[in-house]
Design a protein that fits this description.
Blueprint lengths: L1 E2 L25 E2 L4 E6 L2 E9 L7 H15 L4 E4 L6 H12 L3 E5 L6 H5 E13 L7 E12 L1 H8 L2 E5 L10 H8 L2 E3 L9 E3 L5 E6 L12 H4 L3 E4 L5 H12 L3 H17 L8 H14 L8 H16 L6 H18 L11 H10 L1
Parallel strand pairs: 5-12, 5-13, 6-9, 9-12
Antiparallel strand pairs: 1-7, 2-3, 3-4, 7-8, 10-11
Length: 364
């Protein structure tokens, strides 16, 4: 009798039972204070967060990191909650990096289902046996078994990886039912068709970090009370002035004086409340980076710089709403008044720091 692995399709060409959605892209780079992700060659599903060269770890970041690690080391899932632009994702990756374990990242999505977290059947594995024990008799036996594929939550629970679930409230609440047993009983219950297991015990090194934005309403679902009760939630507010200034100087190459003018302008605009979309540190970085690149003076006397600030900030005042011309002019005048206060006349020409000059030299 001879057994020959003569599948109708090769393992790399499994027949799919249902059309599959394209894989969701992972964030190639976290914003805010500066973390990047690189794939681990040994495990394509995992990533390794590493600080960028311009990563800034201020006292505020150190305090949030220390508090978060305290919960994680005690075995509790961690939840960073805060508005857009506060650096939640970067902070989550930074804390995950301190644990020293491979990281798996999931991004919340309304189309994300339990199968996307746990796993599903993907295609078939065929096996064909040709029996010619009696030379003039041929016996054929063919079997086809569905193939189970672990997805990210199952992989993280099985191997003891760190799971970073970014913007988890963008997923439907029922998707997270499977997490309740993971956090309480330390058991991940699997569908009946999952291999030969009906559950797996969660690895003792498994940790989970969640982020969410409580202020956003578009595409966001309310969190389940049962899940929220299991999370250790830390609220993340906007960075203080010192942190914004350090980040702007490191990320844009502007001198401290010029960066401070832009930081103070955006912070004053945020404090005014005269907007529909909150201006965050990303707006400061946008203005500072373009000003440094174009050699603009950080002054109301430079028309190019004034136009840059209007482009970056004025759109946040209206968010596309149709307003009367008088209303627009009033809001524009208020923004120009802030510019006159924080970026006054006779401002020095933009000074590019030594770090930025070295960066430009390397690029050339």
């Amino acid at each position: 009798m001879s057994t020959e692995p003569a599948p109708l399709v090769s393992p790399s060409q499994d027949v799919e039972t249902t059309p599959q959605r394209p894989a969701r892209p992972e964030p190639a780079e976290a914003l805010a204070v500066g973390y990047r992700l690189s794939a681990r060659p040994a495990s394509p599903a995992t990533l390794t967060p590493r600080p960028r060269a311009d990563f800034v770890e201020t006292d505020q970041v150190k305090d949030l990191t220390r508090r978060g690690l305290g919960f994680l080391r005690a075995g509790y899932p961690l939840h960073f909650r805060g508005p857009a632009g506060t650096g939640k994702t970067t902070l989550a990756l930074h804390v995950a990096a301190q644990l020293g374990r491979p990281v798996i990242v999931i991004t919340g999505d309304n189309e994300l289902g339990t199968a996307d977290l746990v796993g599903s059947q993907r295609g078939y594995h065929y096996r064909k046996v040709v029996d010619q024990f009696i030379h003039n008799v041929t016996k054929l036996e063919e079997t086809a078994n569905q193939r189970w594929t672990d997805h990210r939550l199952t992989t993280a629970c099985r191997e003891g990886y760190t799971l970073v679930y970014d913007e988890f409230t963008r997923s439907r609440p029922e998707t997270h039912n499977v997490l309740l047993g993971v956090f309480e009983e330390k058991i991940l219950f699997l569908p009946a068709q999952a291999r030969e297991e009906c559950y797996i015990r969660v690895h003792p090194d498994f940790r989970a970090i969640f982020t969410s934005n409580p202020q956003e309403y578009a595409g966001v679902h309310a969190s389940q009370d049962a899940l929220a009760d299991r999370l250790a939630t830390i609220d993340v507010d906007y960075p203080d002035r010192g942190m914004e200034l350090a980040v702007a100087s490191a990320r844009t190459g502007l001198g401290e004086t010029e960066a401070a003018r832009i930081i103070d302008l955006v912070r004053a605009f945020r404090a005014s409340g005269d907007y529909q979309q909150t201006p965050t540190m990303r707006a400061s970085l946008m203005i500072a980076r373009v000003a440094a690149q174009e050699g603009l003076r950080v002054s109301i006397d430079d028309p190019g710089f004034v136009q840059l600030c209007m482009d970056a900030l004025e759109s946040r005042m209206f968010s596309g709403a149709r307003l009367e011309a008088a209303t627009r002019e009033t809001s524009r005048a208020a923004l120009l008044a802030l510019l006159a206060v924080h970026c006054p006349s006779e401002a020095p020409i933009v000074r590019v720091t030594a770090a930025r000059r070295a960066k430009k030299a390397d690029a050339s």
